[in-house]
Amino acid sequence: MPSTATDVFHQALDRLLAKDMPGFIALFADDAVMEFPFAPAGRPSRVAGRAELHNYLIDYPRTLDIREIADVTVHQTADREVIVAEFTATGVVVATGEPYRLRYIAVLTIRAGRILRYRDYWNPLAVRELFGEGVRA
């Protein structure tokens, strides 16, 4: 089990890049919450519990073929369980074959090697342009 919040985050990125969605989901606590503060209308702004997270995330590689995660910066906070991470994901939109590149900022709360809360900040206008209405980033 990873020892720090930063270690867990890097393991999550590795699993996402490897398209290991069961492994990615396993890093979340049973009662974890994912929040999308900039989610467009009609898209969930919150997914709670590992079962809902599984349903939301398991087919992610069928939507986005993430091929690189770069420019990763992790900022420590005064609370050792909370980190702020910046990164860029690039790849391909599976449905269209169009290139995908999006900058993210995530605020994570991680305790005992599990993600409790993942707040995912991304540009909804860029996502709409890439996918049209109603597709997750």
Q: How would the blueprint of this fold be written?
A:
Elements: H1 5-17, H2 21-26, E1 28-35, E2 46-48, H3 50-57, H4 60-63, E3 64-76, E4 82-93, E5 99-111, E6 114-121, H5 124-131
Organism: Micromonospora aurantiaca (nom. illeg.)
Domain SnoaL-like: 11-118
Protein name: Nuclear transport factor 2 family protein
Describe this structure in words.
InterPro entries: NTF2-like_dom_sf (IPR032710), SnoaL-like (IPR037401). Residues 11-118 form the SnoaL-like domain. This is Nuclear transport factor 2 family protein. It comes from Micromonospora aurantiaca. With 137 residues, the chain is α+β, with helices and mostly antiparallel strands. The chain has a single domain (5-131), classed as Roll (Nuclear Transport Factor 2, Chain: A). The protein has five helices and six strands. It has helices at 5-17, 21-26, 50-57, 60-63, 124-131; strands spanning 28-35, 46-48, 64-76, 82-93, 99-111, 114-121.
In short:
Residues 11-118 form the SnoaL-like domain. With 137 residues, the protein is an alpha+beta fold. The chain contains 5 helices and 6 strands; from the N terminus they run ααββααββββα.
